């Protein structure tokens, strides 16, 4: 799956850090996958511990060592509480004997994904089941363009690459492919100690892509319809507007060396991207008084989202044997019914508030566009009036020059018409408002009066 390199909005907002019901992308016959969660852990935040940002070190739990018959794997039940919800029982799971659990539910009220499940189960040989939270990204480019007769304008200051906004979005452009995201974003953030990273296999996740289609198709169609309307509005003011969006869903099998040990890891990369680009035109008057249009402000806005998933890793020599155990452990993670109901109700309330804010922003953008069109129209009308006056002035100058050569004068009558008469002659106005002339010092006909233009 190839992402667009040049394109710019979101996208998808997964508000709830509770499991959904996606099919298992690993195709192990495990049925429904309860790990399709929301959340917004920042994979670029290198300050959260060592190699695994899911291991927050805050409450690692070494579960009991229950003897198991040879050939069997013992699982111990574990309940995860949420301190942000009065220490309510939030998730239940089965953890392999001798493994520890790190992480939990983290609350970040200012972020779009306000609650996130950040969890890992870690084995004695470095095996790990990581429940990866979803993450939203955004990217902006602004070129101010050139106003006629004005010095170049400086664009506004943009966030630094990799920084995190108050809403939890990370400032990064859309990558060219899922493999580029994996190698350039995921590994440096989540496995900084990994060396000799090599993709062994990349498999399209067909079922996951179908689920994303069902989830985002209405929004994608709506975004394209909105883009077509904005394109028509932009064309009315001489500009251009482009919009595009798409989905991606691939499963990677990767081998690497960490601290001298060779590991194999399965990592899903799935999500959605939306891109919009607006190219405006500036209308103005150049130094010669001519109406000109020059390229105006160009804005590129990209919004993209990587869905929640689960990663599995184990030493390369035991990965095949450990994989079924790790998958079963991941699939055992489930929210308690009471906790899930409360989180869904809370997410619906927050979604309604944010929808209102989005509509208010759309109204503001519409008002700004109408203001720009009105300004361009006024500039055009001012230029047309200036051209008309300049033409009239040139015509008068030519007319006066010709009259001077012919020893004539041009006077404007009370009716606004222009009258040509010999130099030194005197103008008279008749009873009907007509204009006539006679010799200097001459007397007008009866009923006529002298007229001074």
- DSSP E strands, number: 21
State the helical fraction: 25-40%
Tertiary shape: rod-shaped
Class by helix and strand content? Answer: alpha+beta
Distance between the termini: 82 Å
Poorly predicted residue ranges: 1-65
Please, how many helices? 4
Strand content: 25-35%
Rg (C-alpha, Å) = 37 Å
Element order, helices and strands?
A: EEEEEEEEEEHEHEEEEHEHEEEEE
The main sheet comes to: 11 strands, mixed
Q: What would the average pLDDT be, to the nearest integer?
A: 77
Care to describe what's here?
With 453 residues, the protein is α+β, with helices and mostly antiparallel strands. Helices cover 28% and strands 34% of the residues. The chain is built from four helices and 21 strands. Strands 3, 6, 7, 8, 9, 10, 11, 12, 13, 14 and 15 form an eleven-stranded mixed sheet that branches. A three-stranded antiparallel sheet has the order 4-5-16. A hairpin with a 7-residue loop joins strand 6 (100-107) and strand 7. The longest helix has 69 residues, at 337-405.
Write the layout of secondary structure elements.
Blueprint: E1 22-23, E2 32-33, E3 61-62, E4 75-82, E5 88-96, E6 100-107, E7 115-122, E8 128-132, E9 135-143, E10 170-171, H1 178-190, E11 194-204, H2 206-236, E12 240-258, E13 261-285, E14 291-306, E15 309-315, H3 319-331, E16 334-335, H4 337-405, E17 408-412, E18 418-422, E19 426-429, E20 435-438, E21 449-450
Parallel strand pairs: 9-10
Antiparallel strand pairs: 1-2, 3-6, 4-5, 5-16, 6-7, 7-8, 8-15, 9-14, 11-12, 12-13, 13-14, 13-15, 17-18, 19-20, 19-21
């Amino acid at each position: 799956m190839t992402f667009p390199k040049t394109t710019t909005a979101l996208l998808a907002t997964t508000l709830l850090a509770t499991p959904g019901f996606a099919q298992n992308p690993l195709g192990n016959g495990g049925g429904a996958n309860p790990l399709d969660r929301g959340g917004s852990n920042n994979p670029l935040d290198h300050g959260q511990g060592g190699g695994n940002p899911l291991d927050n070190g805050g409450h690692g739990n070494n579960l009991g060592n229950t003897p198991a018959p040879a050939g069997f794997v013992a699982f111990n039940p574990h309940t995860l509480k949420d301190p942000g919800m009065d220490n309510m029982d939030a998730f239940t799971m089965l953890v392999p004997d001798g493994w520890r659990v790190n992480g939990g539910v983290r609350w970040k009220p200012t972020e779009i994904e306000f609650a996130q499940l950040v969890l890992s189960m870690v084995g004695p040989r470095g095996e790990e089941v990581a429940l990866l939270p979803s993450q939203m990204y955004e990217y902006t480019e602004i070129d101010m363009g050139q106003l006629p007769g004005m010095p170049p304008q400086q664009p506004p200051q943009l966030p630094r690459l990799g920084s995190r906004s108050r809403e939890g979005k990370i400032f990064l452009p859309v990558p060219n492919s899922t493999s580029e995201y994996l190698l350039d974003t995921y590994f440096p953030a989540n496995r900084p100690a990994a060396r000799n990273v090599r993709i062994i296999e990349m498999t399209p996740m067909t079922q996951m892509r179908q689920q994303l289609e069902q989830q985002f198709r209405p929004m994608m169609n709506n975004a394209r319809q909105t883009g077509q309307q904005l394109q028509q509005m932009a064309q009315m003011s001489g500009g251009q507007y482009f919009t595009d969006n798409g989905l991606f869903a691939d499963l990677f099998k990767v081998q690497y060396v960490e601290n001298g040990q060779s590991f194999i890891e399965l990592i899903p990369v799935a999500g959605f991207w939306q891109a919009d680009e607006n190219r405006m035109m500036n209308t103005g008057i150049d130094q010669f008084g001519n109406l000109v249009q020059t390229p105006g402000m160009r804005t590129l806005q990209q919004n993209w989202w990587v869905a929640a998933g689960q990663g599995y890793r184990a030493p390369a020599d035991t990965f095949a044997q450990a994989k079924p155990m790790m998958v079963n452990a991941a699939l055992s993670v489930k929210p308690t019914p009471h906790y899930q109901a409360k989180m869904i109700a809370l997410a619906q309330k927050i979604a309604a508030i944010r929808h209102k804010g989005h509509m208010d922003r759309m109204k503001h953008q519409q008002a700004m566009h109408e203001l720009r069109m009105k300004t361009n129209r006024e500039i055009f009308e001012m230029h047309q009036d200036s051209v008309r006056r300049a033409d009239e002035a040139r015509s008068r100058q030519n007319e006066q020059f010709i009259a001077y050569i012919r020893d004539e004068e041009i006077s404007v009558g009370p009716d606004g018409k222009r009258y040509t008469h010999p130099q030194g002659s005197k103008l008279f106005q008749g009873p009907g408002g007509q204009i006539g002339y006679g010799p200097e010092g001459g007397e007008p006909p009866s009923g006529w009066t002298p007229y001074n233009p």
